[in-house]
Amino acid sequence: MVPQLYLITPSTPDLTSFPKTLMAVLNAADFSALLVRRGSMDDAAYARFAAEIINVGQGAGCAVLVEDDTALAKRLGADGVHVSGGAKAVQEAAKALKPSMIVGAGNLGSRHDAMTAGESDVDYVFFGSLDGKIDPQAVELAQWWSETFEVPAVLSDPEAPPQTATAHGAEFLALSTSIWSAPDPKHAVRTIIEALEETA
Fold it and tell me: How many CB atoms lie within 10 A of CB 107?
């Protein structure tokens, strides 16, 4: 099974040039979801950035999610929200947005955390961090979840080596740093897809 692709924006993007880079990457591959990271942006800056990225992502046929802000997701017309604030925050987001919008649960460090999130009518459970190297515990959790439950699992591997990228059985693979730091992000994406297809 070739996993679907989930793209994470960089934590400190060049706000002038990034939308063009993003458009090129989204045109190079079929990404199912795009998470707009807040990083260190204040509320106003994040709202401006998210509005532009939502326009680019949805124009490319991608579901665009904002980070931990249900009100902003509604106001900007995003497709949903990625929640990292724990079980109560996930439940509140699901109550506010479901069934018309997507709610994903992240920051899940244990099987208990994942099962609690899964009981809240989420659309996916997200294992691993938004940046840095892949977490071996996240790999184990994603494999266990995918073998046991129907709610899709997203395995995050921000620094996935393009030639050897793998989702370890998860339905989605989340990508970030290794794409944005590449000399040619479009080529990095195509190389990752080739690696995933070879190991499917």
Answer: 19
| Sign of the four-CA dihedral 98, 5, 64, 37 | positive
Q: How far apart are the C-alpha atoms of 192 and 175, rounded to whole Å?
A: 10
Q: Which two tokens stand for residue 90?
A: 């996930």
Q: Give the amino acid at 122.
A: V
Paired with 175 in beta bridges are 7
Residue 86, classified by CB atoms within 10 Å of its CB into exposed (0-12), middle (13-18) or buried (19+), is middle
Residue whose entry in the numeric block shows the structure tokens 């244990």:
110
Of the candidates 18, 148, 165, 112, which has an alpha carbon nearest to the alpha carbon of residue 156?
165
List, run by run, the mean pLDDT of 10-residue segments along the chain (200 residues): 95 92 96 97 96 97 98 98 97 97 97 96 97 94 97 97 94 97 96 91
Query: Among positive and negative, which fits the CA dihedral 71, 58, 132, 108?
Result: positive
Residues 6+ apart with CB under 8 A from 195: 162, 163, 164, 165, 166
Cα-Cα end-to-end distance for the chain? 5
